[in-house]
Amino acid sequence: MITTTGLTKVYQSRGREVTALDGVDLHVREGEVYGVIGQSGAGKSSLIRCVNLLERPTSGTVTVAGRDLTALAGRGRRAGRELREARSRIGMVFQHFNLLASRTVQGNVELPLEILGVPGRDRSRKALELLGLVGLADKAKAYPGQLSGGQKQRVGIARALAGDPEVLLSDEATSALDPETTRSILQLLRDLNQQLGLTVLLITHEMDVVKTICDSAALMRKGRVVESGTVGDLLATPGSELAHELFPVGGTASGPDRTVVDVTFRGEAATQPVISQLSRTYNIDISILGAAMDTVGGNQIGRMRIELPGRFEENVVPIGFLREQGLQAEVVEDAATAIPVQTPAPLTEEVAK
Description:
15 strands, alpha/beta, elongated, 12 helices, six-stranded mixed beta sheet
C-alpha cells in the first residue's frame, strides 16, 4: 500500500544542508498497522510528511496505492489535480489536534468535505456518521475548547476519515495524552484498521505503542531505517534492537563458567514449561535473570534471560533443545571466554523509565 524507494530529504538551515532522510526504503502492506520509532531527530516526522507530500522529497519515490505521488508533484495543472485527488485518499492525524477553535466539532469534521466540494446535506450526514464511529455523536455541537485531549484527538481522527481514505497517517497522535487516554485512542485506531480495512502508518517514540497495535515496525536512526519487519519476525531475530526494547530483560553472568542465553517465546510455546523440561532433561540448575511477557498482535510473546552452568561449548546441546522446541535462543554472554553481546541502550528516556 505504501512504498518509498531511496527517499531523501535535505533541508537548508542557516546556510548549511541538513539531511533528514537518507535513502529510506519502506514497504507497508495493505491493511496493516506499521509503526516507525526512533529518537528525536531520527527523521520520523520528515518521513511521514513526505509520504503524503506535505514535504517534497529531495529525491526518491513515494508510491501509495499503486500511484507514484512524486511523479505528480510539480508536473503541471493536470498532475496537480491528480495529486490533490490522491492526497484526499490519505488521512492525517496530528500530534496537537490542529482543530479550528471557531468551528463546532461537526464543523471541523466537515471542513475537508467542504474543500472537496461535497454538498451541505451530504457533509452533515457524513460528519455525524464519522462522529458516531469515533464515539462522539453527542459532541457534534460542542466546540474544541469544551473537549478533553482524548476527545479532541477523536475529532481529529474523524476529520482524517472524511475523505474515505485508504491510508491513515498518524504523527505522534498519542504523545500529548495521558496513559489511559492513549490506550483508548490506540484501540480506536486498531478498530478502524479492522472495520474499515485501513492501512495505518504511525510514528511514535513510545515502545508501548508498537507493542500494543503494530503488525510491523521500523527503527530509524540518523535518517535511515536500520531495522524493519513484522513484530513477530523481529522478536525472533538474533541481536534485534527492537526486540530488546520491546521486551527488555537484564542480568549478567553471576560468575565464571556461566553462559547467559536470551530465550524468546511465541504462540503456544509461551505457555509451555520448556525451562523446567530443560532442567529435568539435562539435570542442570537454571537461573532466571529476567523475564518479560505481553500480548502482541493477539499473540502471547515473551523473552527470558537465563543462566546455564558451564561454558558455551558445554551448553550446545541444551541450547539446541530450546531451539528444537521452536524457541529463539540467543547466547548473549559466555563468562568463561568473556564473550559479551551488548544490549542496545534505550531509544529514549521514556523507554528507560
